[in-house]
Design a protein that fits this description.
This protein has about 900 residues and is an alpha+beta fold. Among the domains are: about 205-335, Lipoxygenase-1 (Sandwich); about 860-909, no CATH class. The chain contains 15 helices and 48 strands. The strands form twelve sheets. It has an eight-stranded antiparallel beta sheet, covered by helices on one side. β26 (about 355-360) and β27 form a beta hairpin. The radius of gyration is 30 Å and the shape is globular. The N and C termini lie far apart (about 70 Å). Mean pLDDT is about 95; it is low at about 1-5, about 10-15 and about 335-340.
């Protein structure tokens, strides 16, 4: 049964319809409420699963979030791993598994077992340390019981026994509440780690202050080890180099596995002469040391018992060729005990808190005063002193003072989280305020701890509030502050409907436009590829208008309107259908899981909305509510409803306001959490909102687009591109990632390992909303240099193509190059033979030639007008009004801009 508010909303829609029962009219548009079979008579792809929700969920069902596997039973009636950084959690039949991983795992791209791209994937994998549940309770399913902007509550229920867990992005805490006479039960476990790849409790020797010329050789070791009474143990060693002493490893050399003699208990030599370097775990280039550091790590990989290391007879060769013993002590013990036995080690306790260490991480358990917290056989069972609440937190360290500090805030349970954003035209900034509402379960403290991502803490309005605590995460360091709210200020960089056509290039562009417009037609059927064709038409319309070619402009506008009207007819080959179980509007024919998994709606619909903004520019009546405006509004609301009381669509479905970027998968049904590949197509959605809101005079939609665009541009800067070199971990060897995951990121795509597409998928579509990509020209050049090197590696191992040139998306890559070096990009125009399927030669030439005349994008100078941009050599303003518009730039320049697109030369300093 539908919750009452949603049922009423749908009833209003259906009974106000003047078409057949399974169709609903919105102005001149129509969408379906039932899904007809395909043209072949077979069922179409649709969501088969039903949402896993409790009776408390009364609004539209959220999807496409970091926690969506909780509500979407794709692989499990509980959840896949969810990543409320810094934590990772997983709902299971017996409760919630909790872990915190502070060390990443870096992998390579392999072909036939050999790495052809080094350091292409990094993960902070889920390693369960605690499982919190009710003693003896095993639930058939875990369901969604509550949610807010960046927090979620899960429910386990069997008969009258209930357990709830609330967890959130940026919170080190998980808050548990029970409605049951059963005691709380916590199981502690040593997570399974691939010890052949990662050191576990290693014996470490370090040499500091090294200044020396490197001898050009790899490191050398000679270790004297003994398995004692437990022969057959496996061990590994690695050397870690920090050449400049900045605390960050520059090179790692990992030696092959050494297994001790399984028969005799005797001293054996583990040496680099016998065990060569493992190529898959050896990264970084050799170079000279300047006050640097070299470290040996030696650890046990498998087997029971201890290894002994005879220090005086073991040595490491330093980079200057000298050999040094490990020490003077006779013997050191390494890796005692059996994995999993006695996993939890208590480091401190107080009246209401217990600090434990396991799997290399530290946790605090906080219970009501008087509750017994005793661990026996790696289990803790507590009646909670007759109370019904408990919290668990990952801790930055194992200091008793840290545990006690976290105890202060451990009983301020989260009840709500909410953001509010405000765009200030004068300063061209977006201020976002994050507010947490809490309830004090004990005492009066209502403040909580926030762990802020890099895109947040760099732009915090009160930087002095940060404490001396931080966490490692897949998004870099997370810094901690205390309070009930915090705010950030992020610049809005501006967008344009198009770049102005360079006067010097009009003849060539006109000829190209004539050729491409003459044969232009729509050939694709699904929402994504037909949408990309809308993007092509949109750019050609803008160029035709600038060139004064009204015939081509109007012809393309007519074709664009006609195809969109086909989509909005409801009864033709193309249509949209509203799913009242999942509160979503899906276009058919669908693609890439948009129908059955609710994937990528913001990618697909960005092209529809952008097309509508262009139509509105020349035919405002077409987007009036009584025409097609309501259908466009429905597409916007499906991906990003701007009304918190919307009963038909969830608020901000695709955008994660705490993570600062969007998620693509509707279900998040992966071991690595949710993911997003094409950040640039998400930015295309934001651009479409800005231009559509501006064209229709809807500031609410426009400002939503500005918030999305400015916030995600900053997230892309750090999490896709790592411009500051503070996010990608040591061993990841690329300038960018193709995909961001909940637990990390990958230099890859869903469909290929071709570097051209890995890089390009986060550039396209290139348009007037893409200038954020050029804010750092040096990075653009570094990105393309990495691409050329990776392209060479890719093709030299047998993949088809020329290692020295680009045979995929050369136009997209040239347009990206133009953001840093327009003349170099202009020199490539004539060599581009084919266009990417969403691009045209007309637009590629127009874009590159425009930047050759304007110069590079100047992100340091912004404007009080949404569509006004400063370039190296000029200011460009698009004025959508019929009157002259006063525009002010933050460098003091003021312009009276005429209607339309205008360019003002910029005086040299």
């Amino acid at each position: 049964m539908l919750p009452l508010p949603r049922a009423l909303a749908l009833a209003v829609l259906l009974f106000s319809s003047d078409v057949s029962a399974d169709l609903f009219r919105l102005g001149s548009g129509v969408y379906r409420t039932e899904l007809p079979p395909g043209s072949d008579g077979k069922p179409r792809r649709s969501i088969e699963a039903a949402p896993l929700v409790s009776e408390r969920i009364t609004g539209a069902i959220p999807t496409n979030d970091w926690w969506s596997s909780l509500v979407w039973p794709m692989h499990s009636p509980h959840s896949m791993v969810m990543f409320p950084h810094p934590l990772a959690v997983k709902a299971q039949t017996g409760g919630l598994g909790v872990g915190y991983t502070s060390t990443p795992v870096v992998n390579d791209h392999l072909k036939d077992g050999v790495a052809f791209q080094i350091g292409t994937d990094y993960r902070f994998p889920f390693r369960q340390s605690l499982l919190v549940g009710l003693d003896g309770l095993e639930a058939e399913a875990t369901v969604l019981d509550g949610f807010s902007d960046w927090a979620v509550t899960a429910l386990w229920k069997v008969a009258d026994d209930e357990l709830r867990a609330t967890f959130a992005h940026g919170s080190p805490f998980v808050y548990f509440e029970k409605a049951s006479d059963r005691p709380i039960r916590i199981e502690f476990s040593a997570a399974k780690v691939d010890r052949t790849r990662e050191p576990v409790d290693p014996y470490t020797v370090e040499w500091k202050g090294i200044t020396a010329k490197h001898n050009g050789k790899a490191g050398a070791i000679r270790l004297s080890i003994n398995a004692g009474a437990s022969p057959g143990l496996g061990s590994k060693a690695r050397l870690v180099y920090d050449f400049d002493g900045d605390g960050k490893p520059d090179r790692t050399e990992t030696f092959g596995l050494f297994a001790t003699d399984p028969v005799a208990a005797s001293w054996e030599n583990y040496s680099s002469e016998k065990q060569e370097l493992d190529p898959g775990l050896t990264r970084g280039e050799m170079r000279d040391f300047t006050k640097g550091t070299m470290r040996l790590e030696f650890w046990k990989c498998f087997g029971d018992g201890q290894l002994e290391l005879k220090l005086a007879q073991s040595s490491v060769e330093l980079p200057d060729g000298t050999s040094r013993p490990l020490g003077t002590d006779e013997v050191a013990s390494v890796g005692g005990g059996t994995e999993g036995a006695g996993a939890a080690k208590v480091f401190h306790r107080s009246d209401r808190a217990l600090g434990v260490t396991l799997n290399g991480s530290h946790f605090g358990i906080f219970a009501p005063e008087g509750a017994e917290l005793v661990i026996e056989n790696d289990e803790l069972v507590s009646e909670l002193a007759g109370k019904n609440y408990l919290s668990v937190a990952a801790l930055p360290d194992s200091k008793p003072a840290t545990l006690e500090h976290f105890e202060t805030y451990a009983f301020a349970f989260l009840r709500d989280t909410k953001i509010a954003y405000r765009y200030d035209p004068k300063s061209a900034t977006v201020t976002t305020t994050y507010t947490a509402t809490t309830e004090a379960m004990e005492g009066e403290e209502t403040a909580t701890l926030f762990a802020l991502y890099r895109h947040q803490h760099l732009h915090a309005t009160e930087p002095d509030r940060f404490e001396n605590y931080s966490y490692a995460s897949p998004r870099g360091e997370m810094k901690v502050l205390v309070g009930q709210s915090f705010s950030t200020e992020i610049p809005f960089l501006g967008v344009l409907p198009a770049l102005p056509t360079a006067p010097s290039a009009t003849d060539k562009i006109s000829a190209e436009l004539d050729r491409e417009a003459a044969g232009f037609r729509f050939t694709k059927d699904d929402t994504y590829w037909n949408g990309k064709e809308f993007g092509k038409a949109t750019e050609l319309i803008q160029i035709a208008d600038q060139l004064g070619n009204d015939d081509i402009r109007d012809s393309l506008l007519a074709k664009l309107k006609s195809r969109l009207e086909d989509w909005f007819d409801g009864e033709k080959k193309y249509f949209f259908r509203y799913d009242d179980r999942w509160d979503t509007l899906t276009g058919y024919p669908d693609s890439y899981g948009s129908g059955e998994q609710l994937n990528d709606h913001h990618f697909h619909y960005s092209y529809f909305i952008r097309a509508a903004s262009t139509i509105a520019q020349f035919d405002p009546g077409w987007v009036e509510p009584e025409r097609y405006g309501k259908m466009i509004d429905a597409l916007i609301r499906d991906c990003a409803s701007y009304d918190r009381n919307d009963q038909l669509y969830p608020w901000m479905r695709n955008f994660d306001p705490y993570a600062g970027h969007s998620w693509a998968a509707g279900h998040a049904g992966f071991a690595s959490g949710n993911n997003q590949e094409s950040s640039s197509e998400s930015m295309n959605f934001a651009t479409s909102l800005i231009l559509y809101g501006q064209a229709t005079g809807n500031d609410e939609i426009r400002d939503l687009g500005i918030y999305w665009h400015s916030t995600e541009a900053e997230a892309i800067r750090h999490y896709w591109f790592d411009l500051d070199h503070e996010v990608f971990p040591d061993g990841f060897e690329h300038t960018c990632v193709g995909m961001v995951w909940g637990d990390g990121a990958s230099y890859g795509t869903w469909w290929t390992a071709n570097p051209e597409e890995i890089h390009g998928i986060n550039f396209l579509p290139i348009n007037g909303g893409s200038l954020y990509l050029g804010r750092d020209p040096e990075y653009v050049l570094a990105n393309l240099a990495d691409l050329k090197s990776s392209n060479r590696n890719f093709h030299q191992v047998g993949f088809p193509g020329d290692p020295e040139s680009f045979d995929r998306w050369a136009d997209i890559l040239a347009e990206f190059l133009a953001l840093a070096d327009p003349p170099a990009a202009a020199a490539q125009i004539e060599t581009i033979s084919e266009s990417e399927l969403g691009e045209t030669k007309t637009h590629t030439r127009q874009w590159i030639d425009a930047l050759a005349e304007l110069g590079t994008f100047d992100s340091k100078v912004r404007s009080n007008h949404v569509t006004a941009i400063a370039f190296e050599k000029a200011y460009v303003v698009y004025n959508p009004t019929p009157e002259e518009l006063a525009v002010a730039f933050t460098d003091g320049k003021q312009i009276l801009a005429p209607p339309g697109l205008s360019t003002t030369k910029r005086s040299p300093d």
